């Protein structure tokens, strides 16, 4: 059994994610997203899709990035 680091649930089939050399244990994707997903610097939503990065800053979309002064980004939707 493994303890989820977000909700504390003791679960027999955990999700284990290793990122930047650190191992994380979760009982569901919701908890993994809560802990691991970056946050858009403009609208503060969790970035669970591709998102965009500009000069080390993360955004959920080009619109949010441009709203914060990023230049040269293109949305390929």
List the helices and strands and how they pair.
Elements: E1 2-3, E2 10-11, E3 15-19, E4 22-26, H1 29-36, E5 52-54, E6 57-59, H2 62-67
The number of domains = 2
Shape, per Cα inertia axes = elongated
Largest sheet: 2 strands, antiparallel
Written as H for each helix and E for each strand, in order along the chain, the element string is EEEEHEEH
Structure in a nutshell:
With 77 residues, this protein is an alpha+beta fold.
For the structure shown, list the relevant keywords:
77 residues, single chain, two-stranded antiparallel sheet, Prokaryotic metallothionein, elongated, 2 helices, alpha+beta, 2 domains
Task: Please give a structural write-up.
With 77 residues, the protein is α+β, with helices and mostly antiparallel strands. The chain folds into 2 domains: 1-36, no CATH class; 37-77, no CATH class. It is 18% helix and 26% strand. The chain contains 2 helices and 6 strands; from the N terminus they run ββββαββα. The chain has helices at residues 29-36, 62-67, and strands spanning 2-3, 10-11, 15-19, 22-26, 52-54, 57-59. A two-stranded antiparallel sheet has the order 1-2. Strand 5 and strand 6 (57-59) form a beta hairpin. The radius of gyration is 16 Å and the shape is elongated. The mean pLDDT is 93. This is Prokaryotic metallothionein.
């Amino acid at each position: 059994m493994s303890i989820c680091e977000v909700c504390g649930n003791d679960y027999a089939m955990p999700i284990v994610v290793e990122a930047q050399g650190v191992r994380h244990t979760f009982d569901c994707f919701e908890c993994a997203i809560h802990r691991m997903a970056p946050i858009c610097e403009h609208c503060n939503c969790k970035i669970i899709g591709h998102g965009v990065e500009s000069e080390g800053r993360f955004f959920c979309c080009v619109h949010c990035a441009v709203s914060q002064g990023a230049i040269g980004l293109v949305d390929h939707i």
